[in-house]
Design goal:
This protein is of the alpha/beta class. The chain has 15 helices and 13 strands. The protein has a domain at 3-252: Amidase signature (AS) domain (Amidase signature (AS) enzymes, Alpha-Beta Complex), CATH 3.90.1300. Residues 24-444 form the Amidase domain.
């Protein structure tokens, strides 16, 4: 096995036991980037020399017996909304031409302190305002969408061009590309991971989290990222918790909610079948399945857009007026639409969010996690703009991809996407687990236990 094929946990063990040098691991990942990135275009920029220098530093520390933890010497790709000192933060937009960050974001600083090695900045849908990341190709099929907005991060991890990556999630932007590329995506509880130094899309919905090859890897990254930062007004000041799942987790007695409404409506039959099979696996592991009704479903889409759209437009107000031509057409239209929304619309969306949160709080008193599809369909062809469901309903691709992930953003609940097989075209399918606030431990334990029932996943062909 080549070093770039290792999971984070496996690489950490090899480095700690001195069987693998961080230099060897980083060189292997950089070589992989050189071979696959011309096809998938996951990276905005690759910091090869900087990465090699950091790897040599990590190796010298390891030689002295200094080991900073499981991220020590491990290559990471960071979504290009996240500031890294001395590097541009382009947000994959012409608006940011010439920009260069002067300081690290909180999460970049924490990764640096943990010994992780930045290999590059990954593409996002422009300013994270979309669900496809059009400049990046799916790791499993070059003619299909990567998903978004953290498409570059998900593709890099799926293709072996990063051992792990960071993304952001406002309406599903970690979980959607993770599902479409066959990797793990974790959106933590709102406020658990600070967002200082991260370009916002919608301040009341934005999250930062890891994209990894395994659930165990996601837990290791979360441990390095979580913790209070007063520079983020939403950051939670709570005691540190070890979220890592047991090596052989016991799911006896865990109550898994299986939605009878919403999550299995307007969904591809192959996705539904794969997720139901995964839920059956959870039951075989000792969980108790409980049928649940998802509350207030008719308000989810309106609430998501009613919060996100005006908040995004407020952030871009000045640039939208002075240089609208620098935005891609799809993003500019959304930003202009946001300026037409009234304060009353935004306030009604906030009131609806309060009611939805309360309803989900009551729901999660009945179950420990909810299991559902991450997205209603696998990766669509890059030129496809809409999907027509069997009952004649026509839905835009973006609306379809955000539909099942938005509830966890509106409520701020932690949500995890785990690979759950492939369709007949060989495209990945994801199962989403949603848990109680700050109960990432149960979420990760459940996902890890399910993952252990499946064969080890190979890297995507990246072609």
């Amino acid at each position: 096995m080549n070093p770039h094929e290792l999971t984070l946990a496996a690489a950490a063990t090899e480095i700690r036991e001195r069987r693998l040098s961080p230099v060897e691991l980083v060189d292997s990942v950089l070589d992989r980037i050189g071979r696959v990135d011309p096809q998938v275009r996951a990276y905005v920029t690759v910091a090869a020399e900087q990465a090699r220098s950091a790897a040599r530093d990590a190796e010298r520390e390891a030689a002295r017996g200094v080991f900073r933890g499981p991220l020590h010497g491990v290559p990471v790709g960071i979504k290009d909304l996240i500031d890294v000192a001395g590097m541009p933060t382009t947000a994959s937009s012409r608006v940011r031409a010439g920009h260069r960050a002067t300081t690290d974001s909180t999460v970049a600083a924490r990764l640096r302190a943990a010994g992780a090695v930045l290999v590059g900045k990954t593409h996002t849908h422009e300013f994270a305002y979309g669900l496809t990341t059009p400049q990046t190709a799916n790791a499993w099929h070059s003619g299909r969408v990567a998903g978004g907005s953290s498409g570059g991060s998900a593709v890099a991890v799926a293709a072996g061009a990063a051992t792990f990556a960071l993304g952001t999630d406002t309406g599903g932007s970690i979980r959607v590309p993770a599902a479409l590329n066959g990797v793990v995506g974790l959106k933590p509880t709102y406020g658990l991971v600070p967002r200082h130094g991260v370009t916002p899309l919608s301040w009341s919905l934005d999250h930062v989290g890891p994209i990894t090859r395994t659930v165990e890897d996601a837990a290791l990254v979360l441990a390095a990222l979580a913790g209070h930062d007063p520079r983020d007004p939403a950051s939670l000041d709570i005691p540190a918790v070890d979220h890592r799942p047991e090596r052989e987790p016991d799911l006896s007695g865990v109550r898994v909610g299986v939605p009878s409404t919403y999550f299995f409506d307007h969904i591809d039959p192959q996705v539904a079948a794969a997720v139901h099979h995964a839920i059956a696996q959870l039951e075989a592991l000792g969980t108790r399945l409980v049928e649940v009704d998802i509350p207030m479903t008719r308000y989810i889409q309106a609430t998501q857009w009613g919060l996100m759209v005006p908040e995004a437009s407020a952030y871009h107000e000045r640039t939208l007026r002075t240089a609208p031509e620098l935005y891609q057409a799809d993003v500019r239209i959304l930003l202009e639409a946001g300026e037409l929304m009234s304060a009353g619309d935004h306030l009604r969306a906030q009131r609806a969010r309060t009611l939805i949160r309360g309803a989900w709080t009551r729901l999660l008193q009945e179950v420990d996690v909810i299991a559902a599809p991450t997205v209603p369909m696998t990766a669509v062809p890059a030129a496809q703009e809409s999907v027509t469901w069997p009952d004649g309903t026509v839905e835009s691709v973006s609306d379809a991809y955000v539909r099942l992930s938005a509830p966890a953003n509106i409520t701020g609940l932690p949500a995890l996407s785990v690979p759950a097989g492939h369709d007949t075209a060989g495209l990945p399918i994801g199962m989403q687990l949603i848990g109680r606030p700050l109960d990432e431990r149960t979420l990760l334990r459940t996902g890890h236990a399910y993952e252990r029932t499946r064969p080890a996943r190979a890297l995507a062909p990246a072609a």
